Structures are given as C-alpha cells and as structure tokens.
Amino acid sequence: MKPVVGATPRVVKPEQDWREQLGPEEYAVLRQAGTERPFTGEYTDTETVGVYECRACGAELFRSTTKFASHCGWPSFYDPADSDAVLLREDRGMGMKRVEVLCASCHSHLGHVFEGEGYDTPTDQRYCINSVALKLVPTDS
After folding, report:
1. Average pLDDT per run of 10 along the chain, which is 141 residues long?
2. Residue 89 falls within a domain, yes or no?
3. Dihedral-angle region of residue 96 (phi above 0 means left; psi in -120 to 50 means alpha; beta otherwise)
4. 128 is catalytic
5. 1, part of any domain
6. How many Cα atoms sit within 13 Å of 1 on the Cβ side?
7. Residue limits of the MsrB domain (predicted)?
8. Residue 9 lies in a domain
9. Is residue 126 part of a domain?
10. Among the options 54, 57, 103, 128, which is catalytic?
C-alpha cells in the first residue's frame, strides 16, 4: 500500500463554514484529524445494510458489504466503495508511522488504514474509521 494524496479537494469551504456545519466532535475529527473514543461510535457494531457517506460532504465512502467485525472499537471496512472514494497519506503523528484515510471529495480526516493484521478479508486491509466521520444511509431491503 503506497500512500497517495490527490490534488485540490472538490468540496472547498472556509474553516468557519465547516465549524458552522459540523458539531464540535465532528469538527474535531473531520477537520482537525482527531479520534473518537473506542467503542463509543454510533456505527461500531451496526449491521444495517446501506452506504456510508462522508458526514462533512456526503460523498459515498464505504458500503456495508465491506464492513466487518474487527473488535477494535471503531467501524472497520476492508475496501472503500470506489477506488477513488478515499485518499491515503502518511501520518507520523503520535510517534507512530501510520496511513491516514481522507475523504477524496473534501479531504476530511476519516481514520487510518492498516494491513497485514491477519483479518480474514479479501484485501487483508482494515480501514479503521471514526463513526462520527460517517453517515449511514440505509438501503431498502
């Protein structure tokens, strides 16, 4: 996995507009690369069928068909909805070397992606995403 960040985001707003649109926790995670506490997020254990969108801009990011129970405290997916849905970039914060996951549309922080952890998934990747960064849109069953 080679981290890459694309060019200019498609959705661009002044930070004040993001602050007005998002709640304090949403803003801290999406715009300031924060992390919600483990096992507290709305979507950590949900099995609802649907599409997960970026809470900041509404772009489709993940589908419930790629969500799996990783028991790590955050919703986990093994693949984005589309290869262009997210961007990856190196994150050396907190004394670690990780790969940050960003919404490709608005460049909001979503979480991190890890690989080689031994999960039985088709990609051997775990997109560890903050619930507060997502909005689940259920599909009709």
Report:
1. 58 91 96 95 95 96 95 95 88 80 95 91 94 94 56
2. yes
3. beta
4. yes
5. no
6. 22
7. 15-139
8. no
9. yes
10. 128
